[in-house]
Every structure is written in C-alpha cells, then in structure tokens.
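Pilot study result, target chain (271 residues):
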Amino acid sequence: MGYLLLFTVLGLLIFGVWSIFNDIYVYIYDQIRYSLKVRQPLKSSRKLILNKYSAYYKVLPLAKKKEFERRVQRFIYSKRFISRSSLPVSEEMKVLISASAIQLTFGLPEIYLSNFDKILIYPDSYYSHITKKYHLGEVNPRAGIILLSWNHFVEGYGDLTDSFNVGIHEMAHAIHFENRIRNEEFDFLNKDALQTLSIITDREMPKINSGQPHLLRAYAGTNEYEFFAVALEYFFEQPTQMSEQLPDLYQTIAILLRQDPLKLYNFSSPK
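Predicted structure:
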C-alpha cells in the first residue's frame, strides 16, 4: 500500500513537471511564431486593400507608408478577429479594422491597444442585452473586446466628409480606456492636453445640449467619452471646419495624437 502511494505521488509529480515544461514550450513556440509573423512585411494582397480603401494610408509619404504597414501587420497578429454570424472574417476586415486603429495611434509610440485582444464583427447593427438597445459598435474594457458592425464600418469609410465613422469612433473609445489601464501601454496621452480637453469638453457640452448650432453632432453631448469619440471623427473627416470653428479643440487633439491631418492632406494636395 505504501509503495502504491509513493508511485502515485511520483507519477503526479512527474506529470506536473511535464505539464509545466510543456506549457513553457508551447508559450515559447507561440511567441517565436508570433515574432516571425510580425516581422514579415505586409503581404502584397493586404497592401492592395490599403491602397484601395484607406484614404489615410494613400496620402502618406512612402517612408510613412512602410511604417504604417509594419504597424498594421503587428496589430493583425495581436488580435483575434471573431465573426458573430455565418459571415466569415475576411482579409478586408482584418486589414481595414487594423488600419482604423493604427490611423489614430500612428503619431504615438507603438500603441496597439493591448488590453483589447478580441474584435467581434457583426454583419450589421446588433442588440445588446445589457443596454437593451441596438448598437453600431461598442468597447468593453473589462472583457478586452471591441465590437463593430461591419456594414456601418464600411459606410463610415465610404464617405470621408460626413464625420460619421464607426471605426474611428470605437477606436477612440479604446484609446481613451487604454490610456488609463495599467499595462505596458499605460499613460501615453499628454496629461496637459487631457486637462485642456476636459476644460473644452465642459465648455462645449452645455452648448451642444442646449440646442445651439454646433459643429459637433448632438451625440457628442452625451458624456465626456462620447464627446472625445465624436470629436475624433470630425478631427479626421472635417479638419478644416474644426480648425476654423473649434481651433483649441483641434490643436488639443493634434497634441494628444501627435499628428495633424491638415498638414498631412496639404502634403498630398499637389499630387
């Protein structure tokens, strides 16, 4: 009986040690495989998608395009893209959703929204049992999930002047949360600019909610988070109007994101 117990304990110990080493091996293998994929240049087929659909990418100078491609590649392999219907996850979905995130973080140092490892893609608007409403997109920092309606995502990039862009809007929310979550990407937004943004938000939201004519649409008056997300839509899609009508807001966002769409578009205009 004593030997049986001894062999049982030894067996369990050996199995436990083997399981630990196996887990370590799998982890190292996955990290090496991930590193190799990330270091590969973006496939030609994915570059074609960017060239066809990403207006932001198309106006970048060549050196910046290479950097944008590298970041898109890394973003793609750092996320799980999950379809919430029979519609399969396509290359266009992976590339363009990744590009929407990189567009917002391109002026920042290597920000990939690491808290959000899953991107759920719905074919159209979807019903939330939490809010009891239909949504076009959503960000859940606790679950590490970004949710998007693909139809509305595509529509947002179909018209680049209407300031309705689900991709920019939801990635703006993700940036806002990521900046406050204590991980390797914590606290990357300029603190002084955030404080200025808070002052501007407090000044502008009452104007929006009072029904006064305003550049930003009414949804920006919901709360500070929606104000930020809507403001980023206008920042990228109506930079001239924002810089003229809300110059301090425009300059504050330019400082936060470390980029200026007006300068970028002026660079591309002679072409």
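One observation from the pilot: Residues 2-39 form the longest helix (38 residues). A full batch analysis is planned for the follow-on phase.
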